[in-house]
Amino acid sequence: MRIPGSAxxxxxxxxxxxxxxxxxxxxxxxxxxxxxxxxxxHPDAKTAATKPAGSARKPKPKPKPKPKPKPxxxxxxxxQTVRTLLRTxxxxxxxxxxxxxxxxxxxEGAAAGVLVEILKTGDASEKxxxxxxxxxxxxxxxxAQVRVHLASPDEVMRHVAARACGEIRDKGAAGPLKKLLExxxxxxxxxxxxxxxxxxxxxxYAYFDARLASKSAVERSKxxxxxxxxxxxxxxxxxxxLLADEETDVRYRVVLTLERIAKPEAVPHLIAALRDKSYKxxxxxxxxxxxxxxxxxxxxxxxxxxxxxxxxxxxxxxxxKKKVEKKSVKKVENPGPNLTxxxxxxxxxxxxxxxxx
Length: 357
Prior knowledge:
Helix content: 55-70%
Number of strands: 0
Largest sheet: none
Order of helices and strands: HHHHHHHHHHHHHHHHHH
CATH topology of the domain at 213-315: Leucine-rich Repeat Variant
CATH class of the domain at 213-315: Mainly Alpha
CATH architecture of the domain at 213-315: Alpha Horseshoe
Number of helices: 18
CATH superfamily of the domain at 213-315: Leucine-rich Repeat Variant
C-alpha cells in the first residue's frame, strides 16, 4: 500500500538536517579558518636530494688523546756528568762556567731528569744551581719537585724556587706561592707575587696594587723599584699612573723603572715625564729617551718628541733580522764509559780557552 506524503515528509526531514537541497549553513571565511600545521622538513632532506644515491654522511673523527709525558729519569753517568759541570760553573773561569751551562742546557730532557735527582740528593749549592737551570729549561715535569723547596728554611732557596715556578708556569704552585706573600723577606714576597702573575693568578696583581696604593711614599717607591727589578711590560699599566704622584722621589723612581724596562711601550710615558715640574725628572726622562730611541735631537721638548715618535714609532715594532751563528756545543747526553770527570773538566777548559782566542 502506498502512503501519500511520505516523500514530502522525507524531503522536509532532509532539509532541516542540512543534507537535502534546502539552504545550507554558512561556512566561516578563509581568514578565520585555522591553518593546518605542515610538518617541518628534515634538515638532511635538501642535502639528501643533492647527494648521489648510496652516499652517507661520514662520522667526524674523534680527536686523538694527547700522549702522556714520560717521567723524568737519569742514569748514573748523566748524574755524574752534570755534577761535574755544576762544579765547573761554581769554581771555573767565567768562560768555562758559561760553556758548562750551555752543555747542561743542550741536554734538555735528560738534564731536567738529572737536575731533579740533584734536588733530592745534592747539597745546598747544587740545589740552588739546579733550581736556576730548571727555570731556564722550563720543563713542566719538574714542577712538583721544584714546588717542594718553596717551604725551605733557607731564604735564598725560597727565592730561587719561586722564580723557577714562575718560569715553568707551574699552576699547581699557586697555593704555596700565596703563602709566600706573607714571607718575612721582601725579596721572596715580590718574587712569589711575580710568579703568580706569570701563572695568571689574580693574587699576584692584587699584591702589587696594594703596595703601589700605599699611603707611605717610601712603600710606593720601594714597590716601583722592585717591579723594575722584576722587569716586564705587564707592569707598565700599574707603574705609569704614579708619574702623577705628589712625591718627587716616587715619580723619579718611576722614570728609572721605565728606563730599566727599556721597551718601546715605555716611550709615551717617558715623553709625558718631560712635562714634569722637577728638572731632575725631566733630565732623567730625556736621558732614558736618548738611550732607548738612540737619538737626542728633540732634547727635553715634549712637543718635538711627540712629533718624532709619531714618525718613527713603526720602526720600533719591527725587529731587525740578525744572522745568528750556531754555536758548536757538543752534547754530553751520552758521555760514554771512557769519559771520566777529570777528562770532562779538561774538555770544558779547552773549549773555554778557544772562546777567549
